[in-house]
Amino acid sequence: MGKLIEAIESGLSVNGKEILQGITIEIEQGTTVAVTGVNGSGKSSLIKLLAGISEPQTGNIQRYFTSYAYVPEHFPEHLSFTVRNYLQLLAEMNGSYKEKEIDYYTSLFGLEPFLDTPLKKCSKGTKQKAGFIQALMKKGEVLFLDEPFTGMDEGTVQIAVDLLMERKGRKTTVFTLHETELAYQLATHIAVMEEGRLVSCLPVKQVSRMMEITYRMSENRWQAVPLAEHTYRLVVEETESDKMIGEILRHNGHIIEVKGRGER
Ligand SMILES: Nc1ncnc2c1ncn2[C@@H]1O[C@H](COP(=O)(O)OP(=O)(O)OP(=O)(O)O)[C@@H](O)[C@H]1O
User: Which residues, if any, are the signal sequence (predicted)?
Assistant: First the structure.
């Protein structure tokens, strides 16, 4: 297994606003990274940075892959192509046109009734399925998915989950997801974004042993993540958490919350 992406202290600003700060991450071939975090924490921006859709203004990033597929959170509006033409065109562009493969995926996702419907007239879920299928058919070295299950009904989510489970541990995938439980099922690594910073990116097994300590203190002694004025968060191994809490109290800090990393 080799490194496919390496970002060092990468930062990105748009119109003078810092969107990503100090992003340092390594993504190994064959890993599945779930990027989690609250709305606006920078998950989509991180995916675009990793894919090369945007470039950092500070720090640097090396991408060692030659091809990728990307599914945005929102499928482009106003596309006049029919579902069939869209899938055929993209498959042809990738040099991997296989009618049977299109048939297989459209049947799996129940898209047959909509094959001749222009995308702009399709529901959000139908468009999402078409985006998902074209990305799978592309067979890029890395698959980037931004909230892949947006707009999908329960049955469709299960089909998409099964397809992603087949890739797990074999084909490199990076996706954003709100549902923490699903992220833990699908991913080998969990990345956590907070206010444009990557707080951690750890193997799932390790994350379940990590504790988050949120506390108030007059100064930031341990390079904790600042949440608000005098309010910080530290992520430590479960075995270290009592010792850390002791340190915080010794420095006149106040504990606000202590919880397991996987708890939401
Ligand atoms: N092109 C842009 N211009 C200005 N601000 C932007 C742009 N793209 C992102 N932002 C801002 O950067 C921050 C992070 O946005 P981003 O979409 O990456 O977050 P997110 O975690 O994916 O959010 P969500 O869960 O709502 O999809 C937000 O405050 C957003 O408003």
Answer: none
pLDDT along the chain (264 residues), means of 10: 92 93 95 93 96 96 95 83 89 76 92 91 91 89 93 91 92 89 90 92 83 93 89 88 94 93 58
- 15 close to ligand 1 (CB < 6 Angstrom): yes
Q: Which domains, from first to last, does the chain contain?
A: 3-205 (3.40.50.300), 210-260 (3.30.1490)
In angstroms, the CA 42 to CA 252 distance is 32
Per-residue confidence (pLDDT) for residue 96, from 0 to 100: 67
- Strand 254-260 to strand 210-216: parallel, antiparallel, or no bridges (unpaired)? antiparallel
Measured on CA atoms in the order 176, 85, 94, 120, is the torsion positive or negative?
A: negative
CA-atom Rg of the chain in angstroms: 21
* All residues at 6 or more sequence positions from 133 whose CB lies less than 8 Å from its CB, including other chains: 87, 102, 105, 106, 109, 111
Atom 25 of ligand 1 has which residue's CA nearest to it?
39
Contacts of 80 (CB under 8 A, 6+ apart): 118, 119, 120
Helix (H) or strand (E) holding 181: helix 180-186
Q: Output the residue whose Cα is nearest ligand 1's atom 28.
A: 40
Instruction: Give 134's contacts (C-beta < 8 A, 6+ positions apart).
Output: 69, 86, 87, 90, 91
- Which residues does residue 200 pair with via DSSP β-bridges, in sequence order? 192
200: Cβ–Cβ under 8 A, 6 or more apart, which residues?
190, 191, 192, 207, 210, 235, 261
Interface predicted TM-score (ipTM):
0.95
